[in-house]
Amino acid sequence: MFTRLITAAALTAFAFPVIAQDQTPEAQLFDAIGMGDILEIMREEGIAYGLQIDQDMLGGSGGSDWRASVETIYDAERMKAAVGAELTSALYGMDVAPMLEFFTSDLGQDIISLEISARRAFLDDVVEDASKDAAAIASAQETPRFLQVERFAEANDLIESNVVGGMNSNFAFYMGLMEGGALNGDISEEQILTDVWSQEAEIRQNTMEWVYAFSLLAYQPLSDDDLDAYIAFSESPAGQDLNRALFAAFDGVFEDISFALGRASARYMVSQEL
């Protein structure tokens, strides 16, 4: 279910979402799949990325003003509202009932708990690096669990869709730089597109490492039968519909965020030149 690069280490006091019966089915699904928690974690990831931009592009001169700008761009409530609206739109005309049936089941809620816990654990670079090392070994040995995770990734198109999403976000960031005046008209949109495409192999490799590392960590406590059940749902019409809807919802929102980051970066870069 996780998307946009979304453990066995359980949360100390994880509470399953309370599904309000007066909500629309789409809103109930948003809660059932733990989207609010996932977006809170993605906000933390985004702020860390924004602070890295300060070091890499602004020479560390952004300071508290830059952090405030990044936190505004990654506003949690606005992200939840935007993804919720986009998801509702993407689910229009689809049968949400089997999606809700799976993710409100005991297995579905266990899966969501594990995904959120793994995503939170990955905020620690040490955990992420160790998980990638373990995944590389499992891949080389073609362990049964790695082959299961590989089937899961294929069923949800996790590699290709995330590569495309990553490239689109990079393009949006460059366009934000351009609109903000940081490129001084020295580079065209076509050149930006060429540069983004040149990053495809690196983005693909990073995506594969992340997806397999995350999946092996998140689903480690699941039995083979439970993971097979998740794969079967992912391969079903309902699972395929939900996966497409999730990627559509995230892609639009995070391209907007990347554009805003690029434009904000440009503002600081131009001010440094004055």
What does this structure look like?
76% of the residues lie in helices and 0% in strands. It is mostly helical and 274 residues long.
Instruction: Tell me the overall shape.
Output: globular
Helix content: over 70%
Count of helices? 13
User: Percent of residues in beta strands?
Assistant: under 5%
Low-confidence stretches: 1-19
Structural class computed from helices and strand pairing: mainly alpha
Count of DSSP E strands?
A: 0
How far apart, in Å, are the first and last alpha carbons?
A: 47 Å
Question: In oligomeric terms, what are we looking at?
Answer: single chain
Compute the number of structural domains: 1
Instruction: Calculate Rg over CA atoms.
Output: 19 Å
Round the mean pLDDT to the nearest integer and report it: 90
User: H/E series, N to C?
Assistant: HHHHHHHHHHHHH
Largest sheet entry: none
